[in-house]
Design a protein that fits this description.
The structure holds 2 protein chains of 2 kinds.
Chain A lengths: L4 E9 L7 E12 L3 E5 L10 H5 L4 E12 L3 E12 L1 E2 L6 E3 L3 E2 L4 E2 L13 E5 L8 E9 L5 E2 L6 E11 L3
Antiparallel strand pairs in A: 3-4, 4-11, 5-10, 5-13, 6-12, 7-11, 8-11, 9-10
Chain B lengths: L1 H18 L4 E9 L3 E4 L9 E4 L2 H5 L4 E12 L3 E11 L3 E2 L6 E8 L4 E2 L15 E5 L8 E9 L9 E2 L6 E13 L3
Antiparallel strand pairs in B: 2-4, 4-10, 5-9, 5-12, 6-11, 7-10, 8-9
The chains are: A mainly beta, B mainly beta.
């Protein structure tokens, strides 16, 4: 070492001493504005009454219904018929009945048939969370009983709307 | 060249006069106050996640992608990067908890390596919560790690149960990213 310049390096590891750690937070926010979605797959039913229906057993089938439900909550499905216009005496929602024949993806049909009374008489079914599925499909038929109808003006007509509703049944 | 020689001579002469010997000493001290730097919310990275659940998200295969994450690590040591929920709130969504959320790591550079683990669960531990590992990044712009955050809302009776009386419902939480020195 004589005659030479010596350089001493001192490297200081301070504060963490070999166990350095640091962290940072990121906020996560999920917004769920609507947990239930319902779509009517069969948009309308048009039926012309013929002598076959008049002579046949009452009620008789006039069509099918099919709805699809996406849910992030348990729910029930109801359907109610509302009269829009008619010229037939004594024709009303109570003349129409329905059933539920099929359901999938955690949906369950009920045996109720009314289209004119409140829940549970007009309940078509119920279900659970459908996340990851194509939605619960409910299907059934619609029936009409014209035994009380009094058609005096031709052509007689009845126009109504079936409202399908889903309701959150979370306790 | 002439100027360099002059400086050398001056230092040598000073050394001789101070120590009255033939040895000169120059002390150099380098202080490293922090060996790891983590930045998960810079302007060019995803930062906070804000996501609105739509009907198509309910129908989509679970889990669904709700956002990206990205962290930049400057290191003078080898390290690992972890992330997990450290707080969570879902007062109006029955069955929702942090185990419904997962993360992956898609890319890493500058000596960073992604890990295959996906857990973000509050209280879970390494290696389940490990997003990646890396080494000294001196001379580079830091190791960039990028990935996605997912949520699985379940299905059926054990799936999420959103209370419609409280709409819109919010699910919030904080994901904490941590770098840890892994020097043995």
């Amino acid at each position: 070492m004589k005659g030479c310049a010596a350089i001493v390096l001192i490297v200081a590891l301070l504060a963490w001493g070999g166990s350095a750690q640091t962290s940072q937070n990121v906020r996560v926010t999920l917004v769920i504005p609507q947990p239930l979605f319902i779509a009517a797959v069969i948009p309308s039913i048009t039926v012309e009454i013929t002598p076959v229906e008049i002579e046949g057993p009452q009620p008789f089938k006039i069509g099918d219904w099919h709805v699809n439900i996406d849910a992030l909550t348990p729910y029930r499905l109801n359907s109610t018929l509302v009269t829009i216009d008619t010229n037939i005496f004594d024709a009303g929602p109570e003349d129409f009945l329905t059933d539920c024949d099929f359901s999938d993806d955690f949906g369950v049909c009920t045996d109720k048939t009314s289209l004119s009374e409140p829940d549970p008489q007009n309940r078509r079914g119920f279900g659970e969370n459908t996340a990851g599925l194509d939605g619960a499909d409910f299907m059934g038929e619609i029936f009409l009983d014209i035994s009380s109808w009094d058609v005096s003006t031709l052509p007689g007509f009845y126009i109504g709307v079936i409202l399908f509703t889903t309701t959150d049944t979370t306790p | 060249m002439t100027r360099k020689y002059l400086v050398a001579l001056l230092v040598g002469a000073l050394g001789l006069s101070l120590s009255s010997g033939l040895v000169a000493q120059q002390n150099v001290t380098i202080e490293i106050g922090q060996s790891l730097y983590l930045d998960c919310v810079p302007p060019d990275q995803p930062g906070d996640i804000y996501y609105v659940i739509s009907q198509s998200d309910i129908e989509a295969p679970q889990p669904i992608d709700i956002g990206d994450w990205g962290c930049n690590v400057d290191a003078v040591t080898q390290y690992r990067l972890n992330s997990q929920f450290t707080s969570f709130s879902a007062p109006y969504v029955v069955n929702a908890d942090t185990s419904d959320f997962t993360a992956d790591c898609d890319t890493a550079d500058d000596y960073g390596t992604c890990a295959p683990n996906s857990s973000l669960t509050l209280g879970d531990t390494d290696p389940n919560t490990r997003r990646g590992t890396g080494y000294n990044t001196a001379g580079t712009d830091g190791a960039d790690f990028f990935g996605n955050v997912y949520v699985n809302m379940g299905v059926g009776p054990t799936g999420w149960d959103v209370q419609s009386s409280q709409l819109p419902v919010y699910v919030t939480g904080i994901i904490t990213y941590t770098v840890t020195d892994t020097t043995p």
